[in-house]
Structures are given as structure tokens and as C-alpha cells.
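Hey, can you fold this one?
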Amino acid sequence: MILDNDPLGIRSIDIKYEGSTRATQYCIDDFMKRLYGSRKITDMTILTCQNYHALMLRFENRDIVVFIKSGLTSGYSGEGPKGTSLIIRLAEEAGIIIKELKAAPSLFKRINSSLATVKDVEFIKKNSKESLDYDRLCLKNVDKEYIQRAKESYKKNKDIIFVRAEDEKTKDAVEIDLGKINKKLDMLIKKLDKIEINTNNSGL
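Sure. Predicted structure:
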């Protein structure tokens, strides 16, 4: 008889999916959100299938794993390889351990379809290696100045929330500016205060 020491799955790893297979910028945004978030990233595995790359991020408290879907590429000049290079340089700068694993198409598809399992996570942890081919993955024009511009842009727009459709085929992005929302709420509160004051005065 096999004993199940966690029958309710309370100690299970929480697997989350971010980024997009169709938009490199979403992958950069979501990586930076995690990089500057409350949980410290300890290591990042670059999952490579052909010239496409997904990421697996692990954190200090090991109860969560985040996959960034494969909107990252390499092997040519363009936004995809620039995004891959930028993320690698940011991870290096933050002291994150960077590993790589050549992933089978079936594993890649599960990640991109938000269907990876705990077994997949364990397989990636066990088989990923720290030896990276930087000439293949990193463009030379992604220098410190480029990284600084990306960081400043992120910090300037950190109050923008991206609301995305779940279905990759019909993925939409709606930008919500929290600053504008807060101003509108303040105006609404002031109007309600005036109405309340007028109502009280007329009652007297």
C-alpha cells in the first residue's frame, strides 16, 4: 500500500503561466514584473526548442514555479532575439542562476498550452545545465545602455496593468492606467461628498 502524505495536495507546487507565444514584449513585461516583485527569483531555466525559447522561473520560497511562454527567439536580429538577450542580461545583473535545457516539442507544447505537470518541473530541474552558448543566445547590441532604457521604461509604466484574453488565438491587450483610474475615483468621491453636503443642508 502506498501512503499518500498529502491527500489534499496542500504542499503541491503552484505552476503559473505568463508571457505569450505571439508577443515578445509580454514575455519581457512579465519577466520584469517577477524580477522586481516581492518574491526573489533564484534560478531561471531557458527551455529551447529549435529557435524558440520559454523560461522556467524558480523562487526562494519553492512553492511556486512560473513559466514564461515562448515569445522569445534567437538566431537572427529582431525583437524576439533582443527580448531573449535582454532577459538574460537582466537575470545576470540580478545574480540569478541561468540554466538551459533543450526541450522536446511535446514538453514545449504543454508549457505553451498551460498544461505542464509537476513531473515536467522535476524533469527540467534535474536535466537543465548551467553551460550557456552566449554567442547563440545574446545579441551584442543589447548593452548596458539598452538594459537601462528597458528598466526605466518598465519603472515609468509600472502602473499600467495588462488585461489579456486567455485564448492565445484571440489574445487582446487592454492597457489600464491606474493613475487615471485613481483621478476619476477621486473626482467621483468629491462629487458624492458635495451631494451628501447639499442633501444634509436641504434637510435642515
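The first helix runs from residue 24 to 35. Let me know if you want another pass with a different chain boundary.
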